[in-house]
Design brief:
Length: about 120
Amino acid sequence: MKSLAELAAIREKMQGKVVLREGSGDIRVVVGMATCGIAAGARPVLSTFVEEINNRDLAGKVTVSQTGCIGICQFEPVVEIYEADKEKVTYVKMTPDKAKEVIEKHLIGGKVIDEYTVSNI
């Protein structure tokens, strides 16, 4: 870091990501980030959700957070999506590309991608 302006720019860039993770949107995306999830690749999945939701201006509608072990380690990375008055959807064996597809089809389009869910295993 070379200047106060550079520090301020970093702070502003990261502020959106922090707010996104602490928001109170109608849809909640929860990524399993226990040791098993991280080892299976959950960190890039979480980053993809945070970045894509921020880039698509969905921060007011969607909250992204992380949790510990979800209990189905053999299917990691696991992502759960909670929506008011709807049943929880559990996506398994997620990748950053699948995360982008979930954002497009499920979070924006309203259609669950059945082939990525735990009920389809």
